[in-house]
Amino acid sequence: xxxxxxxxxxxxxxxxxxxxxxxxxxxxxxxxxxxxxxxxxxxxxxxxxxxxxxxxxxxxxxxxxxxxxxxxxxxxxxxxxxxxxxxxxxxxxxxxxxxxxxxxxxxxxxxxxxxxxxxxxxxxxxxxxxxxxxxxxxxxxxxxxxxxxxxxxxxxxxxxxxxxxxxxxxxxxxxxxxxxxxxxxxxxxxxxxxxxxxxxxxxxxxxxxxxxxxxxxxxxxxxxxxxxxxxxxxxxxxxxxxxxxxx
Length: 247
Hints:
Elements: E1 2-6, E2 9-11, E3 33-35, H1 37-53, E4 58-64, H2 70-79, E5 83-87, H3 94-105, E6 112-116, H4 127-135, E7 139-149, E8 153-160, E9 163-170, E10 173-177, H5 189-195, E11 200-203, H6 234-243
Parallel strand pairs: 1-4, 1-6, 4-5, 5-11, 6-10, 7-10
Antiparallel strand pairs: 2-3, 7-8, 8-9
Helix pairs in contact: 2-5, 3-4
């Protein structure tokens, strides 16, 4: 079984967001970048399969971006992936990234492509479905459980409003992952040392077209003053809500 895990290179969640003076990009000075947490769930589930099935499972991680994404790919190798690929193109928008991934995956006969349900920087959630569409593969989103059934079928649980849904699918398959599908893994010293010798290939990509353009980034409006109301005076809360037209 061949598994491709897509890795986004994103700012750590503790990052204090600051934009460049032109408002068109993130100011990356002093920013620590990490594996997108939802992608890491997909990597961990792939490693679960590898541990269960043995050497018959190979795991490739891929990211679209410049040399700055290579430390993030190396971390994925340290966690347990077999090899890594960097598509040497700036990640411009969801369509362009999805096209680059699909063009790489199409001739290589992967069985499963894992991605996070979204990246924690733009929170778009578009790439998994776009990749599946471009490949003509089945797609299951927001997966919280996944088990193999024989060699070419899988059973998945996914969240829906008010509960969860059980889905059966054949392979090949694109899966977007979220919390519950696996537990994050921490690279150990042996994995870190081994990652230095694992192959990290750079491919030129296909010059996929971006279909969106960023006009500007702005901060959300500042929070207003907070009003505290004594728990012993619920009628005051009712008066405030009524005055604002909320009730």
